[in-house]
Specification:
This is Aminotransferase class V domain-containing protein. The chain has four helices and four strands. It is an alpha+beta fold. The protein has a single domain, classed as Aspartate Aminotransferase, domain 1 (Alpha-Beta Complex). The protein has a four-stranded antiparallel sheet, covered by helices on one side. Helix 1 packs parallel to helix 4. The longest helix is centred in the N-terminal third of the chain and has 19 residues.
Length: 110
């Protein structure tokens, strides 16, 4: 049921969070304990719209922008974020693709 879906999404979010924290230059935005299966982040020196473009070319779909939270962006002093969302149809393989795409994006802008 719905509890299993929520558990699956949380497991993916936890795994993605653990893996993305290992990448130098990546900052996670938002650290609520109880939150939706959404991972917002920025990469030092790379505009989130550029992150989205490079990741799209690698076949990884994310959202970029303000996400209807301009006051939050102002609070954090950032122009926008990149955001990955996880759902019932995602797997660890998708998270691994995300992590690899983040690393490749950093390489492109190095």
């Amino acid at each position: 049921g719905i509890e299993n879906i929520a558990k699956h999404e949380k497991e993916l979010l936890d795994y993605a969070t653990q893996e993305i924290r290992k990448i130098e230059g990546v900052q996670i935005i938002g650290n609520a304990i109880e939150k939706a299966s959404v991972l917002s982040f920025v990469i030092e020196g790379i505009h989130p719209h550029d992150i989205g473009t490079i990741m799209d070319k690698q076949g990884v779909a994310i959202r970029t922008g303000h996400h209807c939270t301009q006051p939050t962006m102002d609070f954090y002093g950032i122009p926008a974020t990149a955001r990955a969302s996880f759902a019932i149809y995602n797997s660890r393989k998708d998270v691994d693709a995300l992590i690899n795409a983040v690393k490749k994006t950093i390489e492109v802008f190095a």
